[in-house]
Amino acid sequence: FYFAFGRNVNRDAMNSKNRCPYAELMGPAILDNHRFIIDNRGDNIGYASIEPCPGEKVIGALWNVNKKDFQRLDIREGLKLTPPSYRRERKKIRLLEHPNALIDVETYISNYPKGQYAVNGYIEEIVQGLIYLGFKSRHISNYNKFLIPA
Question: Is 12 in a helix, a strand, or coil?
Fold first, then answer.
């Protein structure tokens, strides 16, 4: 299982032929005691990551991903780069609809330092995916702080 919290929460992006065309969306999920952040790929702008933070939670999607799709994801997430952009870690998440059951998952965490703003269009794609998953505006309103000011 794979827990997505960035662009891969968006079903269209995740199931595209250059990502994970065979991945099965299992539903909305939550990672406790972590928070969503943006990394810094330069000029304080970057992509999604997470960091430990007691009492906070990260919302996202649970995917059932086969081995071949995980290999594609590893390449897409830069695990094979030197140095690697992301690393894969095991976490325990819970489904929104079954909050008492913990599920072991793989997820990707950035190796870059913490940034401030997401690249243009990135947050909008994440929010679109989270809305599709059924998350309400109160769950996603904090994503606006990662938009580059106009």
Answer: helix
- As a whole number of angstroms, the distance between CA 129 and CA 148 comes to 20
Element (H, E) at 132: helix 122-132
CA geometry: angle 72, 78, 80, nearest 5 deg? 85
More confident residue, 112 or 149: 112
Name the token pair of 47: 């992509």
| Rounded-to-integer distance, Cα 100 and Cα 48, Å | 26
Beta strand 45-46 with 117-118 is parallel
For residue 2, list its beta bridge partners.
63, 106
Residue 146, sorted as left (phi over 0), alpha (psi -120 to 50) or beta, turns out to be alpha
Q: Is this model's pTM higher than 0.85 or not?
A: yes
- Confidence band (pLDDT; 50, 70, 90) for 138? confident
With CA atoms as reference, report the closest residue to 13 among 91, 72, 87.
Answer: 72
CA distances to 17, 33, 148 from 93, in Å = 27, 10, 30
Judging by DSSP bridges, how do beta strands 86-95 and 98-110 pair with one another? Answer: antiparallel
